[in-house]
Amino acid sequence: MGLMLPLSLLPHVADIEPFKGHGAYGPVYEPPIVGEPCLIDDERRMVRDDEGTEVVSDTTIFFRPGTRCPAGSRITAYGRQMIAITSFDRNGGRLPTPDHVEVVCR
Asked: Which of 40, 44, 74, 100 is the most buried (most CB within 10 A)?
């Protein structure tokens, strides 16, 4: 593992409810991960979901490496709820770049 994003670059906090699957009454989530340090970037951009369909993302959230936030997870930050479209594990290997998890949300 290379460098980790320093906490000084993660001024926000978010609660994550990892998506578990679908039940008889809709989405099922795992117990929440509360107060996860992050950086929230509100920027609209076109991304591809896990099935390859182009969708619009309103927010990108950067977490420390190892944060679990699969597609469909519910994220609460700043009093608003978002749904993870997909997430990326950004690992630079031995390069001197900060490793992080990038989650794009709607």
From this structure: 100
CA distance 76 to 38: 12
Nearest to 67 by CA among 106, 15, 28: 15
Do the Cβ atoms of 91 and 2 come closer than 8 Å?
yes
Provide the 8-state DSSP code for 64: -
- Encoded amino acid at 53, one letter: T
At 8, the amino acid letter reads S
Is residue 20 exposed (0-12), middle (13-18) or buried (19+ Cβ within 10 Å)?
middle
Q: What is the pLDDT of residues 23-48, one digit of tens each?
A: 999 999 999 999 999 999 999 999 99
**Tokens describing residue 66:** 């190892």
pLDDT tens per residue across span 36-90: 999 999 999 999 998 999 999 999 999 999 999 999 999 999 899 999 999 999 9
Token pair of 12 as six digits: 């926000």
Residue that is written with structure tokens 């959230």 in the block: 61
